[in-house]
Each structure stands twice: as C-alpha cells, then as structure tokens.
C-alpha cells in the first residue's frame, strides 16, 4: 500500500492547514453525498462507517491541498485510523474549516490596521 520510500518510517504525518476556497470547493464536492449528521457530536459510529471513504478523501484533499493526492492516502487512512479517531478528526476539521472560525481574525486585523487609509470625519 505504501511507497517503498515510506515503508520504513515509524510515523507518517498529515498536516492540515487552513484551506483555501479552492480546497474547500474540492471538499464540498466530496461531502455532497454525506449526511449532515456525520458532523454532529453525537454521531453514531455506524454512520461514520458508511462514509469512511469520503471522510478519508476529505482528509487527503485537505492534507495535500489538491484533488490529485497520492493513491495510497485513502487506503492508508481507512486501515490505520480507528473509527472514533476518524470521527474526532472530521468534527475538528468541520469546526476549523468553518469560515466563522477564522473570519473574525480578518475583521479584527482590518479594524486595527494602522496602514489603512481612512477618511477622518
């Protein structure tokens, strides 16, 4: 499943950065058929099981920041991440990818930027 360069590593990390609108669009394409209940705190693990592939694809897109992620990503995630961990990851991603989570930072920066040219009344 893993490329030969990676097989000897003890750990493989997937870094998920704040997504661009393009990456969010890619994720939206994948999550279009996923029930909203998957993102709730009281989601049933049986429901997570039925959308395990889609969740792994979203994690792969977010980690690689494009749709052409390596072929082994999804299989690796599905076989090595427990369902409860997958649930926690997708819930955390849903919170952090919500524009409301990071949009307030931009609004604060705009209000307090000393370089802004504003008209004085």
Taken from the alpha-carbon principal axes, the silhouette is globular
Instruction: Give the beta-strand count.
Output: 0
Low-confidence stretches: none
Give the integer mean of the pLDDT values. 77
Q: Which strand-content bin applies to the residues?
A: under 5%
Describe the main β-sheet briefly. none
Distance between the termini: 65 Å
Helix content: 55-70%
Radius of gyration: 18 Å
- Number of helices, where a helix is a run of at least 4 consecutive DSSP H or I residues: 6
Topology pattern, helix = H, strand = E:
HHHHHH
Task: Tell me the layout of helices and strands.
Elements: H1 21-31, H2 45-50, H3 52-64, H4 72-80, H5 83-96, H6 99-112
Helix pairs in contact: 1-3, 3-4, 3-5
